[in-house]
């Protein structure tokens, strides 16, 4: 990965503007490198979980940025190639004129058959035209150099994408193992597994289950940090809002939450310090995690493939809660296709619901949805 990263750094030098695709790819490569360093430096215990969580998030953000940079690079490359193809005749004439001027001896350039007046006029014309010709040639050279960089970038970035993907998979596996081995998190209460099983067996809606969980657990304290951040919390997963609060789906069914579209195997984290009230499969929601950020408030995350933590644990902001399902692309062809288009990459969804005093409220009350 280091060799590919160094090549990307060299490609995206200061020749181009800061918002160009090559610069974006350079920044993404640096982010992937930092994620790899964070993973290798992760220590034991809770620090290891925190470090690995940051490594996974770093890999995810770096891969997103890399794919976006490559998609923009492909668009820019196509634009340049089209522009150069349309101007091929004009470019040929420009090169011919420049070559003629460069080959002509200096004395001949100053002579004109009409005598001194014609010579003066022709000199004035040459003096006016030559700078414009050179400016056009310089612009053409810049475009050709940029095109060469973009082509080389596309050829070399696949290695960085592949290594970044492998690093993300390794970081997720290491994170799962570290969480299994973790024993030092404080607990506010111990789960009554029999009572939870009975509640699951008698529940037919998420609403009734949330009410039952609230009745079966101790009410937590007020969390001033969560209350202070109310309305500005980050979404628990990298993604985009697919369906808003109480918006009907394709079948016309409305749910009092929002659906976030995200990439396969995306990491879901706690947006604030909280207590885990429930984790596990529930009805048709897949795996569900319910946390209590402050007294009488519940955040419900549904649709996970893997869930982390134990019921009753008190977790910090940014603590990993689980992974979404799906599978990451494995081949260079898949990676290249993803780099060229975002269509289909956000194929997984997370359902987010917020309950305040057992009443569903718009998640935008707590989260920075916009």
Task: Describe the structure concisely.
The protein is of the alpha+beta class.
Keywords:
370 residues, alpha+beta, Glucose Permease (Domain IIA), 2 domains, 8-stranded antiparallel sheet, 3-stranded antiparallel sheet, 15% strand, elongated, disordered N terminus
Report on the structure:
With about 375 residues, the chain is of the alpha+beta class. The chain folds into 2 domains: about 1-180, no CATH class; about 195-365, Glucose Permease (Domain IIA). The chain is built from 10 helices and 11 strands. It has helices at about 1-10, 20-40, 45-85, 90-105, 105-110, 115-180, 195-200, 205-215, 225-230, 330-340; strands spanning about 240-245, 260, 265-270, 275-280, 285-295, 295-305, 305, 315, 320-325, 350-355, 360. Strands 1, 2, 4, 5, 6, 8, 10 and 11 form an 8-stranded antiparallel β-sheet that branches. A hairpin with a 2-residue loop joins strand 10 (about 350-355) and strand 11 (about 360). The longest helix is centred in the middle third of the chain and has 66 residues, at about 115-180. About 35% of the residues are buried. The model is unreliable at about 1-20 and about 330-345 (pLDDT under 50).
What is the tally of helical segments? 10
Poorly predicted runs of 5 or more residues? 1-18, 331-344
- Mean of pLDDT: 76
> How many discrete structural domains?
2
Q: What is the succession of H and E elements?
A: HHHHHHHHHEEEEEEEEEHEE
Percent of residues in helical segments?
40-55%
Can you lay out the helices and strands and say which pair or pack?
Layout: H1 2-11, H2 21-40, H3 45-86, H4 88-103, H5 106-109, H6 116-181, H7 193-201, H8 206-216, H9 224-228, E1 239-243, E2 258-262, E3 267-269, E4 274-281, E5 287-294, E6 297-304, E7 306-307, E8 314-315, E9 320-323, H10 332-340, E10 348-356, E11 359-361
């Amino acid at each position: 990965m280091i060799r590919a990263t160094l090549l990307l750094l060299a490609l995206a030098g200061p020749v181009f503007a800061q918002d160009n695709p090559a610069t974006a790819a350079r920044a993404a490569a640096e982010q992937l490198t930092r994620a790899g360093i964070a993973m290798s430096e992760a220590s034991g215990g809770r620090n290891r979980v925190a470090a690995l969580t940051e490594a996974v998030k770093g890999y995810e953000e770096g891969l997103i940025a890399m794919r976006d940079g490559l998609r923009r690079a492909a668009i820019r490359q196509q634009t340049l190639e089209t522009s150069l193809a349309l101007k091929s005749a004009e470019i040929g004439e420009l090169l011919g004129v420049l070559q003629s001027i460069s080959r002509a001896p200096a004395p001949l350039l100053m002579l004109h058959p009409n005598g001194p007046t014609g010579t003066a006029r022709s000199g004035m014309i040459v003096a006016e035209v030559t700078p414009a010709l050179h400016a056009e040639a310089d612009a053409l050279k810049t475009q050709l150099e940029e095109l060469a960089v973009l082509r080389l970038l596309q050829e070399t970035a696949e290695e960085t994408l592949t290594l970044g993907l492998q690093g993300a998979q390794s970081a997720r596996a290491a994170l799962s193992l570290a969480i299994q081995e973790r024993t030092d998190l404080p607990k506010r209460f111990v789960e009554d597994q029999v009572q939870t099983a009975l509640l699951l067996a008698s529940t037919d809606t998420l609403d009734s289950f949330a009410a039952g969980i609230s009745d079966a657990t101790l009410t937590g304290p007020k969390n001033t940090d969560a209350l202070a951040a109310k309305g500005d919390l980050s979404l628990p997963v990298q993604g985009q809002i697919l369906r808003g609060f109480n918006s009907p789906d394709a079948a016309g069914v409305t749910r009092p939450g929002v659906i976030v579209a995200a990439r396969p195997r995306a990491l879901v984290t706690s947006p604030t310090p909280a207590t885990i009230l429930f984790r596990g499969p529930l009805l048709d929601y897949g795996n569900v995690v319910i946390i209590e950020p402050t007294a009488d408030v519940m955040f419900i995350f549904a649709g996970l493939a893997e869930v982390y933590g134990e019921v009753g644990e008190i977790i910090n902001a940014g603590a990993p809660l689980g992974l979404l399902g799906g599978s990451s692309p494995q081949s260079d062809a898949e990676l290249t296709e993803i780099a060229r288009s975002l269509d289909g990459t956000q194929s997984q969804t997370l359902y987010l619901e917020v309950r305040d005093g057992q009443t569903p409220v718009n998640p935008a009350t707590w989260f920075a949805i916009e």
